[in-house]
Fold Fructose-bisphosphate aldolase.
Amino acid sequence: MNIDELKSVAQAIVARQKGILAADESNPTIKKRFDPIGVESTEENRRRYREILFTTEGIERYIGGVILFDETLRQSSRDGIPFAHLLSGRGIIPGIKVDKGAKALALHPGNKVTEGLDGLRDRLAEYKQLGAKFAKWRAVIEIDEQNVPSAYAIRANAHALARYAALCQEADIVPIVEPEVLMDGAHDIQRCNVITSQMLESVFSELNAHGVLYEGMLLKPNMVIPGMKCPQRTSAEEVAQASVRCLRRYVPAAVPGIVFLSGGQSAEDATDNLNAMNAMDANPPWQLSFSYGRALQAPVLTAWKGQESNVAEAQRAFSKRCQLNGLAREGIYSRAMENR
Ligand code: 5MM
């Protein structure tokens, strides 16, 4: 394990003002994103869409890394430049999603466990050759009104995340560890806090048991936030306070960065909540940043609609979201900036 390389890649991804573009939608997920804008999910449309994102001018000021899906890592720009090289050439670090998705956990109805460990060592070696310097694995934890998640589902997912992270570091690839507590459902912010706390405690206990180097990884958690159907809504300041309090309790200071997922929040809410954390806690032990999928891309898809004539508008929308999240990294964003 090359400790210096792991540390420097992890730190570069979350350098000042920077975060991550999560563009690693699997084919079923990108189809769900394309359907509402009437774009067919063909290999060429997926390639063109990612090309529009990756060639947007100026994003390298705010985007330190991009997470790719297997197919995208093997694709190239119109000019024949492999996407991984195109991104590296702009100073953006290419990464790869390596999990194989969340499947039903046997004997634990309503719970899921993420698969993909078999053969992972060989896949990581190939991804490294193709230019990936970091990887991502997402565990999915649902909350219901009763017994989901089970204590065992939390442990099983934490264990898989730690095995994945150890394999990554063995291959000199920085692991992004993503334990996502979903915001689907009617649970309140306190229940999200309890489950997120249990998950993080279990994840760091397993990472420690597996010998994972905290300095050479990034954590991608959910914010502590009420479920989408919860009647009690919360302000950005309440989400920020609950999230940072929880993270301060469970995430070691040696981890260089916490890169939140957006999880179904609107683009504006995701930016505002991140901003509130950075405005409130001026000196957290880790960088507080973003690794947004939907919150960076939803306005881009709406502007693009699969039409070449809309590309400039789509890139403007993307550039704006990157810039505003860059400001949120510093705690100097305000909602008023949305209308400029
Ligand atoms: C971009 O979406 C990612 C891939 O999801 P699937 O494997 O289900 O296709 C997803 O892991 C994403 O990186 C995170 O959930 C963060 O994205 P959001 O949209 O929640 O910010």
The pocket of 2-O-methyl-1,6-di-O-phosphono-D-mannitol is lined by residues 22, 24-26, 29, 67, 101, 138, 180, 261-263, 292-295 (CB under 6 Å). The CA atoms of residues 112 and 225 lie 21 Å apart. Strands lie at 19-23, 63-68, 93-97, 102-104, 112-114, 134-141, 174-181, 218-219, 257-260, 287-292.
